[in-house]
Amino acid sequence: MDILGSAQNRNVQGEEQQKLDVLANETIKESLKFTGRVCVMGSEEDEEMIPIPAQYRPGKYVVLFDPLDGSSNIDVNAAVGTIFSVYRRVSDHGRGSLADILQPGVQQVAAGYVMYGSSTMLVYTTGQGVHGFTLDPTIGEFLLSHPNIVTPAVGKYYSVNESNFARWDKGVQTAVRGFHGDLPEYIQGKNSRYIGSLVADFHRDLIAGGIFMYPADKKNPNGKLRLLYECAPMAFIAEQAGGAATDGEQRILERVPASLHERSPLVIGSRDDVRFVADTIARVRDSALQAVGRPDRRS
Ligand code: AHG
Ligand code: MN
Ligand code: MN
To answer: CB neighbours of 174 closer than 8 A, spacing ≥ 6?
Structure first.
């Protein structure tokens, strides 16, 4: 079906597009544009916002998506996903605008992902808990297999690309040492799992308990993941399952995006583990400030 390999093109992020990135993006846009429900769309793969074509009626909602998450896994047949986020428009009529898109995550009315793993699953929230459906290919329907998913407050796993260790701030390094079991005050060492697909890594942590991080590093000073297509929808799901999500300083859902493709550091998953990372980052930063004679930023 010619779905493997590179599309010989780069997207707005400067990343090489895979054929499946392009196919997924076109499929989602085609499925939404004529519905009369959507006034504007935004995609990781499109530089500009995506207007609804003139021949179709614009609707009440804004849909933002990462059509194919985990692209580096396509050609090796590991799990990939699709992430989506839905907002109510803020303008009252006509075609949607950037103002409709640039809303903080707390305003989301729905968010979810599809994971193409050993089974295909749809996991979503509309702000009333998180529910998971598994595709039964014999009847072509998604069946409710995971009602009311609740993430354990402390997880078994941590998921982070540790090849970036030397490029992280000391606070992040210290937190990860805690997961190794190296901090006396944090004795729960964790097991490590990292696929490199946010959807798959997040899904494991959501079900089994754990924490996923993509912190800022010297190469990616604002982190790598995108606030609107990746961080905000996953944060909505995490919180609805009893977990938490922060950029290290601020709750992800309260961040007001300034641009369509804005990036953010992400620390997400089991509540107590996320708090541990945020506290460790703050503690290490405060002691560094005190060491150079500047006041504690909390005082
Ligand atoms: P995408 O395939 O949509 O560009 O997203 C890839 C993201 C995310 O899924 C994953 O967590 C992260 O990039 C992996 O990045 P590294 O290879 O730098 O670990
Ligand atoms: Mn992605
Ligand atoms: Mn993608």
So the answer is: 183, 280, 284
